[in-house]
Design goal:
It contains 14 helices and 13 strands. Helices cover about 45% and strands about 15% of the residues. By secondary structure, it is of the alpha/beta class. It starts with a strand and ends with a helix. It is elongated, with a radius of gyration of 21 Å. The chain folds into two domains: about 170 residues, Glycogen Phosphorylase B (Rossmann fold), CATH 3.40.50; about 180 residues, Rossmann fold (3-Layer(aba) Sandwich).
């Protein structure tokens, strides 16, 4: 398994790894010590080996030179690991760690299966698309980047708990609380945190608006500063550095305000939640913008550019949506159309079939 850097790359790989392990197979990871894989893979009980490599996108000249200098060594490291483990296949969810591993796998004639979660493939998958034995994508428009006969729209593996989230009908009257989940991911989002704080006085002091309840995941860095301010704001709800049970938070929410990484988008789709999506403007190849645009076109989400998200704008859109229950229900139905249950199982089946073909 190769894919790392962010949780959006690691979590889907772990979902497939668990499915493979349940089927009796041995699974190993290759990653970097500074990526999220270092925090998530060992506790999940999978062995992982380390290579040294940095990113190539949106980095300064010095970092670019360092990464290019590391590349031959990291490919050699990955080749040695693959020869020692003799895997039947290599599975990639992208990220900078995937590049050397996929190059090593191709050189050693090991079948490569890629899962591209974003509307626009990342740098590694774009460059190596023609070598993929099979490619799984989340959006139909992404298929054009891969060989037509080897690509399949399978969605992104998401925990089954999200598919089990019950629909939360919009409040029948303004006196019932309208619950908003705000999350910028495990690391938090400065833009979302700032806008949420700016919205508190606007949402708490207007008696003509819906009663609002917030569930806010701030990320560890901002929690100590924001928590006392939230408690003094008069807004009902709860604030957390990190939500351990995100499916439970989704179950309570009438509306989700989030970044637009594919992990977040897939969870929103699986749970069938209307959303306000604020793409990270520095995401490589603008993939978060493309993800959000796909949901917006389907009527499942409202897209607000990062530069336009203020406390006043957030309060305005929350108030407007709270007053339109029919639109919220339509957004929820549209979000569900992007859900792909069984994605991990489907990928595991293809990996098994390739393994059987390779090993007999």
């Amino acid at each position: 398994m190769a894919g790392g850097g962010s949780g959006g790359h690691v979590i889907p790989a772990l979902a497939v790894a668990r499915e493979l392990r349940a089927r009796g197979h041995s699974v190993r990871f290759i990653g970097t010590r500074r990526g999220m894989e270092a925090k998530l893979v060992p506790p999940a009980g999978f062995p992982i080996e380390w290579i040294e490599i940095g990113g190539l996108k949106r980095v300064g000249p010095r970092k670019l030179i360092e990464t290019l200098a590391q590349l031959p060594w990291s490919v050699w490291q990955a080749s040695r690991m693959l020869r020692r483990a003799a895997p039947a296949a290599v599975f990639s969810t992208g990220g900078y760690v995937a590049g050397p591993v996929l190059v090593a796998a191709i050189r050693n004639r090991i079948p490569v299966i890629v899962m591209e979660p974003n509307a626009v493939p990342g740098f590694t998958h774009r460059r190596l698309a023609r070598f993929a034995a099979r490619a799984f994508v989340s959006f139909p428009e992404t298929a054009r980047w891969f060989p037509k006969e080897r690509v399949e729209v399978a969605g992104l593996p998401v925990r089954e708990e999200f598919f089990a989230v019950a629909q939360t009908p919009p409040p029948a009257s303004p006196r019932q609380p309208f619950t908003i989940l705000i999350t910028g991911g495990s690391q938090g989002s400065r833009t979302l945190n700032r806008a949420a704080e700016g919205s508190w006085p606007l949402l708490s002091r207007n008696p003509d608006r819906h009663a609002v309840r917030m569930i806010h995941q701030t990320g560890a860095a901002a929690f100590e500063e924001l928590a006392p301010r939230f408690r003094a704001s008069g807004v009902s709800g709860e604030i957390h550095a990190f939500l351990n049970d995100m499916p439970a938070a989704f179950a309570c929410a009438h509306l989700v305000v989030s970044r637009a990484g594919m992990g977040a988008v897939s969870e929103i789709a699986a749970a069938g939640k209307p959303s306000i999506l604020v793409p990270l403007p520095t995401a490589s190849d603008q993939h978060q913008l493309r993800n959000a645009q796909a949901l917006e076109r389907a009527g499942a989400a409202l897209l607000i550019p990062d530069r336009e998200l203020t406390g006043a704008r957030l309060a305005q859109e929350i108030t407007r949506l709270a007053a339109e229950p029919e639109r919220l229900e339509a957004m929820a139905r549209a979000a569900r159309t992007f859900a792909r249950p069984g994605a991990a199982r489907r990928v595991a089946e293809i990996l098994e079939s390739l393994a059987v073909g390779r090993t007999g």
